[in-house]
Structure formats: C-alpha cells, structure tokens
Hints:
The complex is a heterodimer of chains A (461) and B (234).
Chain A: H1 3-14, H2 17-24, E1 28-32, E2 35-40, H3 43-52, H4 54-65, E3 71-76, H5 92-100, H6 142-153, E4 162-166, H7 172-186, E5 192-196, H8 197-209, H9 213-221, E6 225-229, H10 238-253, E7 257-262, H11 274-280, E8 284-288, H12 293-306, H13 313-322, H14 327-344, H15 350-356, H16 358-361, H17 370-380, H18 385-388, H19 395-411, H20 416-422, H21 428-444, H22 446-460
Parallel strand pairs in A: 2-3, 4-7, 4-8, 5-6, 6-7
Antiparallel strand pairs in A: 1-2
Helix pairs in contact in A: 1-4, 6-7, 8-9, 12-13, 12-14, 17-19, 19-21, 20-21, 21-22
Chain B: H1 25-35, E1 43-47, H2 54-68, E2 74-78, E3 98-102, H3 111-128, E4 131-136, H4 148-156, E5 158-161, H5 167-180, H6 187-196, H7 201-218, H8 224-232
Helix pairs in contact in B: 1-2, 5-6, 5-7, 6-8, 7-8
Amino acid sequence: MSLWQKCLEQLENQLNAQQFNTWIRPLQAVEEEGALRLLAPNRFVLDWVSEKFRGDIEKILTHIEGAAAPQIKFEIGSVKRATVPEPETSPQPAKAEKAKKGDSNAAGGVFRRRNDSKDLNHISNLRDEFTFDTFVEGKSNQIAKAASIQIGENPGVAYNPLFLYGGVGLGKTHLMHAVGNLMLQKSAKSRIVYVHSERFVGDMVKALQHNAMNDFKRYYRSVDALLIDDIQFFAGKDRSQEELFHTFNALIEGHQQIIISCDRYPKEIDGLEERLKSRFGWGLTVAIDPPELETRVAILMSKAQQMNIDLPNEVAFFIAKRIRSNVRELEGALRRVIANSRFMARAITIDFTKEALRDLLALQDKLVTIDNIQKTVAEYYKIRLSDLLSKKRSRSIARPRQIAMALSKELTNHSLPEIGSAFGGRDHTTVLHGCKKIGELRESDSKIDEDYQNLLRTLRT
Amino acid sequence: MTQLPLSIHLSESATFANFVVGENALVVAALQQACRREAQERFIYLWGGPGDGRSHLLQAACHEVARHQEGRGSLYLPLSEAAQLAPEMLEGMEQMGLVAIDDVEAIAGDSRWEEALFHLYNRMRDEGGGALIVSASSPLSSSPLRLPDLKSRLAWGLVFQLRGLDDSGKLKALQQGAQGRGLDLPDEVGGYLLRHYRRDLADLLALLERLDQVSLAAQRRLTIPFVKEVIDAD
Lengths: 461, 234
C-alpha cells in the first residue's frame, strides 16, 4: 500500500465523512524522493486543503514515516496531466510537449504552436457521431438542415455567417458538428474549430494572462471554419466581445466560414454589443423550433436503432406524446426506458414504459398531505369530511376513516400520534389498530383492496 | 462545514453495502455501474424527499470510485454549503472519476453557480469520461433551476426518483446506523420509535445520534423507557 493510501485511511477515520469526500478525495498524489506532491483540481481546493488539512496530513505522515516523512507540495493538476504546472510559472516547453501528445485541454488552452513548425495545431473538437445522417429532419428544422448542408458543401460562399437559433436541446450543436464533419469529409485538411463560447472566453483570458494574445488571434483567424456554440454566453463580457468582433471581421473578409448558435434571435441577446448583433445578421439567420409529434417519434426510433434497441412504434408514440419540450429530454426518457428494460430483463411495452417513466413524469410529484387524503377518501366514499373526523363509529364511517389512516401512514412521514390527532384527536394506538385492520381486510376482501389501490392511485397522480 | 444529518458516517462511511435498498434496486445498480465505468450512462439525476438517502448514495458513489478506479479522484459537493464555497471550485473537476453534486436546488437562481455547473457538464461530456451525479429534492419539471441549458442537460441522462423506505426498511436502516455506532437497537425499541416519533428517516437518524450521545452519557442501553424519556424531552 502506498504511503498516500495509508495516509488516506487515517484521514478517513479522522475527518468527518463529508469533509473527506469533499476535500480529500479530489486530491491525487505523486510520491517522489523526499516529497509527496498533492495535486488539486483547482486553486480553490488547493487553498482550502492547504489551509485546513495540511497540518493533519503532515502529522499522519510523520506518524507513519517518522523523520523520513516526505515534504508535502501542493500543486494544481492531475496525475494524467500530471505535471501541468501552475499557469503563472509554466515554462513554454512543457506546454508544447503537451500539445504534441494531442492533449487538447491542458490548462494553457488550445491555441499553441507545434514545437517543430510554425503551423498552429488546430483542434476541431468535432464529435464523429453528429452527422447529417443521424440528424432527424422534420418541419421544425428542415430549413436549418438544408442551409447547413449547403454550407458544408461550399463553406465560406453560401451563407456567411450562418446563425442558428432556438431553444435548448433542439439540435443546434448537432447541426454545427455535422457541417464540420461534412467539410472534413470533403477535404481532410480543412482546419475546422468547434468551440463553446465559454471555451473561447476562457482561452482568451488565459492568453491574456500568458501574454499570448498573438497566438490566440492567429489560432482563431487561421481556420477554414469557426463554429461557435451558445453565443449568448458572451453577454456582458466586453473584452471577449471585442476580440470576437475582430475575429469575426477577419474571417468574413477571408471568406472563412462562421457558424454561430444561440438560444435566441440576435437582436434579443441582452448584454451584447450592437455591432456584433448586426453582423450576426449579415448572412443567414435560421430558427430551429421544437419538433412536432411525428418528428419526435422519428427521433426516438432513430436513436433506438443507433442503440440497437427494438422500440415498438406505439411506445415511441407514447413517449413522444408525453415528452414535448426538447430532444434531450426525449433521449433521456428513452435511456431510462432502456435502462429499466435491461435491468429487469423485460420487453419494452407501453405498460412497462409507463412504469419506467414514472420518475421523469413525476406522477408522484404532488405532495400528499393528511388533509388531502381525508378529502379524497371522503369524496370517494361519498361521506362528509366532518363525519370522517367525528366520533361516529358506524361501519360506513369507521371503515373509510381507517382507510384514510392507513393511507396517511403509507403516504406521509407523519408520526402515528400526529396522524391520530389529525383524525379528531385519536390515540396513536387507534391509528395502529386501524392500519392493521385495513392490512388484514385487504388480504381477505378484494373490494377493500380495490378501493385502497384506487385511492392510492388518485392520491399519487 | 456542518455535519450531515446522516451522521452514521461519523463511525462508518456511507457505502452501497450499508444502504438499505428498499425499492431502489435499479438506482443503486445504475450508480454502481457508473462508478465502475461499466455503463454507458454516466450522467444521473437523482431526486427524492428528505431522508430518502440521496446524500448517502452520493457519498457511497465516491467510495465506490476509490475502490474501483484506483488513483482516480472524486468529489462530493453538498451545495447546501455553497455559501462558503465558490463556483471556481468546479474548475478542473472534469478530471475526476466522479463528481457528485448534492442538493442542486441550493444554488438555483445563482447564475454563476448554474453556469459553472453547465460548463462542467459540457467539459465532462466532451473530455472527462467520469460520472456526474446530481441530486435534488424535486423532479426537473418543477426544478427551481433557471438556466434552461443546464436543466435540459440534466434531463438528458438517466433520471431517477428515490423512493422512501417502508417501516421495516426504516427499522433496518436504524438498526444498521445503531450498529455502526456500536449501539444495540432491539426490534421492539426501533418499533417504538417508528410508532411514536416522526417517521422521516433523516429525523430518525438524527434522533439516533442524540440517543447515542445521551445513552453514552447516562451509561444506559436503548430500552423503551429510556427512549421515551429522550423523545418526551424533545
């Protein structure tokens, strides 16, 4: 067992579990001659651990190793990228080294020169699975798809920029990747960069920190196509907008393709400079709407096929009717159905699907209260609520009362004394007796059991 | 940081083995697979009521990652503590084998946190390969989270509702918690608690902690008269 593992065991005993799981588990250790390097994923964790737990760790190390205990060194990074040094002190060669390994996401950002040439090492970030073939077309997205294909065939010529907008989870990102993949298919040497707005902003901040703005500019201006996702995240970031503006102009002038996605129409983006908004409208602006029922069904069928799942048509309709908002939720629902079917080794039917989707559709979302139970039971048996709570002991009243008590015990977390007092100040033993009675009756009397089930269903949905 | 109400963790860390499964077998299986990298599904949204065991499961998942993916880190982040933390602590977390976010509603409406989570999700999807488990007290359809981009991504993975335990399950959980503290909780005493005290497991486990302290101080075993005294003093 390594020294750090021994140390972890003791820390786990000493700290409370939450502290251990929040602050110690994210650390990774590298043991070296005379030193234990502890790698934290970020500055925040590093500072916290170093301030609050350094002493504990040192004590344990001394306890285990005595005078030979290694010195602790805190660093930001992780074992795979083990030696990502602190940005402030990072020497250039280390970064170039990482770029060669194809590590696209090192702390320094993506824009960096290859060691051996003046070429920039463009990293496309494209996902292979997002192609036009896997994009299900419907009324809601056919114009966007057609425009995207044209651009993929003739980048920089047809429409520049292409501005795709629409709500979340409707396939904007999929289309952007599909264009990029088509361009690569046509010309493997195309320099295409897909980037989420956050990444563009992050890269720029790092470039500023490292005095590498020229590299940054060269990187983003030397692409054949720049695909920027979720442009709304530029809102309020003035310096990044400025840089985007210049990048935009340079690309348009060079007939290099730009595709932008956004959750709304350009003019409606708050916190974005007017000059950017107006430029976004220079090319083609296309909306993607939520898919209509038939398209949702087709999406489900296509997704199931990709996953090698036999999805009956009526089940696809069932899901598509209930999940209406966006494609991600649709896919989430399908995943859940498939997970259930695998786990229980059962075929996918409508009833099965209903059961599997209970958690998503949140049929039990409604908070069940004792009040609610009493009202529902009174209505069900067509008796007065006041009778249910009264001292009356005739069976036509007492039985529903016991059912209501049993339901209260099953559906709420109230204590039995609380339930008793909610039923006209009865003792908790009365409640217990009622619950027991109903339990027995449900075994022997199918009518009672049916009533109970009906009420349960009504209350839960 | 304050201590979890599920304080069995003090003496025994939360694991899948000491979780009383009840009707949640599928959830537990899905979490285990995600932690062992056996499943395709590594994004999970888990919602349920208080005391349904979300915090337990999330910490058990961290434990599982440590066991099955040696050397890979994990993060358990209770956002109920967000006031003391900062969204910057999510930076670089895509490197973890698992990020377990508890009580996501605690940061609902805080755009810095919501965006940071959204970006973390994207990074984990694009590069990390680790699992992301988010817990909440409401389903996404009524979640107070404001950023639609974040919500739709959470809905993209597997969504589960945790189901609370019935009385016999609660009794089992209580007895396990007691055992973890070296306490003996006889059936009849546990049954008494369930009949006389609130039946929310979080409350019951908190009561157990108090019983532990008081019984230690008074040098008494857990008997019905003793337990009654403690409840009545409540």
